[in-house]
Design a protein that fits this description.
single chain; about 90 residues; mainly alpha; 4 helices; elongated
Length: about 90
């Protein structure tokens, strides 16, 4: 039966692939890769995924996915009468 990797191990494998680990964590991941076939298989899968993504052609973002400065709305202020309406609703129930 294969030993399941925990979420911390998955995060460490990803960080190891990206070269983001300190020497102590790097040694821990290398030991994990040597002793755990599931970890090694997962790491190889991450490597393959990264290679596919890096080799994918870059595509220009479609125009309808970008917003002009005029199209971006300012955050709306809450309706000013809401507190007064709430108060009048409370009074009406009394």
């Amino acid at each position: 039966m294969k030993e399941q990797l925990n979420s911390r191990d998955l995060i460490l494998l990803s960080a190891y692939l990206d070269g983001e680990l300190d020497p102590r964590e790097k040694a821990r991941v290398e030991a994990l890769l040597q002793s755990n076939p599931e970890a090694k298989e997962t790491y190889e899968s991450l490597q393959n995924t990264r290679a596919v993504l890096r080799n994918a052609p870059l595509r220009k973002v479609p125009r309808n996915f970008t917003l002009s400065a005029a199209a971006v709305q300012q955050p709306r202020r809450p309706f000013v009468l809401i507190p007064a309406l709430r108060f009048s609703s409370v009074l009406a129930t009394l």
